Amino acid sequence: MSDTTILICTGFHRSATSVTAQWLARLGLNMGHWMLGASPSNRDGHYEDNSLVMLQNQALAAQGTSWRFHDEVPLYPLQAVNMISRYSASRDQFSPEGWCVKDPRCTLFLPAWNNVLESRARYLFVLRHWSESIQSLYKRHAEALVFDHSSGLKEAHLQFWRKPTLALEMWIAYNRRLLDFFKKHPDQTLLISQRSIFSGLKLPEILNKRWNMSFDFAESPVKPHLLADIVDNNILSMCTTELVEKADKLWEELMAITDYKNNDESARWSNNENKICQLRNVSEILDTYIPTVIPIDLKAHLDWLETQAGPLNLLPVIQWLRSDAEYRFGLWEKLARLALKHSNWSVAIEALKHIVIVGNPAPNIFKLLADAYLGHGEYDMAIKLYEKAISKNKKNFIFYVSLSHLYMSLGRHEKAEMLLKKSTKYFDRIPGLLFNAIIDALWQQGKYNEAKDLLAARKDEGSILKLSLYEIEEGNESGVERLRKWRSRRLEFNSFESFKCQIESSGLSKSSSINLVKRVQDIYAELF
């Protein structure tokens, strides 16, 4: 194992971890070799390694949760040790001089990171008051609902209004883990507040002083005028008194140990006098508990397992299938997909290999088996199986994209580009997912002009959005105007009244519906 220092930059979502990571990148730290691009809610880029984001999402899925984790299930971070160990070994190979990762999900796996990296790791935690963080989350997901409504309101975004306390519960779950980790490893951690970053914090000097690093000066990417720290009292209609008290107490504990903060780190409410009136009763928010009954039919049992959060013990199902359904390959595939969903790679491999050996597998089975070997860390086998799937069906663009993603995660950007470009001859019009993968491969290699030319020529709304974000990322002002026009066009598809009707008929509670309607109204008001 290398003894170079590794920096883990993390904190809750919407807490200025991205701009902090952007600064670290300017200081010369290697942030990864497959960077997540910009988005409408994060125009300067996320500075997250796509490979790590996907791996930590898989680790969360294996335990029946997601990045929206809010202590709804037990979380066992040390189950991710093998995954983090493989990832770290890959990063050491590509960046022996040291490297950095930024991902809010790291917060949920801090014990695993420390188990793997031990004394090599340094942890930079960025903290933001709960009210500002969750207001930013509501804003981001309201905008996603407004601008990406081609197939109606997206359930993933609506979750923040279906379960009104979700955002605050998430903030508590993440930040409680930061606090607990600090108490055990104070010498390895540095805590800074978001407000201190926007108030002129000299990050390079601080890192040099704290951990004897040797960073030279790099211009700060922080744009103080973008700080949104005035909080609309309306978010309190999504909270309970009990949760607010818990969050306030946790914030006080965090501020007591924070190394760099402003004199005033309290919430800045738009109307303090009405704050208490906005809080909701717990009884209005609690979900109804529905007891479950475990079915005894094999197919019904698999259907039931799909509704369970996990982690799941799927080995008995393998035995059940062997004895009662050896040739019912649909059930074997159903089990494999369930195992993949929960990152149970061994069960998925066993189920899919059974189909390959005993049955007459469709090309997609080889793709699923490749996914399973990829999750298991057997990259060469995964590549062979993706290639096998492609050889059996050259017109399935998902196969090419999946293999290109593996190449990208291994830093083989040119190979990914070649694979994707060769595949285009099988399609009259390049499918959007395949086209975006080509653009990503070009961008990761610094072939910016070629990528922008392809985007400009395609002219669909998705390409225009991506082009505008790339231009903004480069500091090109034309990208800002292009994005403004794109947003205006998207709003023309749906009037505010039409969108309001969709919200009111979506089954939200009255207060959640009012909250979302107000946010959507603010978005329309910004552009018209």
TrEMBL record:
Q: Where is the signal peptide?
A: none
InterPro entries xref list: P-loop_NTPase (IPR027417), PPR_rpt (IPR002885), TPR-like_helical_dom_sf (IPR011990), TPR_rpt (IPR019734)
- Do you know which SUPFAM superfamilies this protein is assigned to? P-loop containing nucleoside triphosphate hydrolases (SSF52540), TPR-like (SSF48452)
Q: What are the record keywords, sorted? A: TPR repeat
Per the record, the domain of life is Bacteria
Record keywords: Cell division included?
no
- In the record for this protein, the TPR repeats are positioned at 363-396
This chain belongs to which protein, by name?
Tetratricopeptide repeat protein
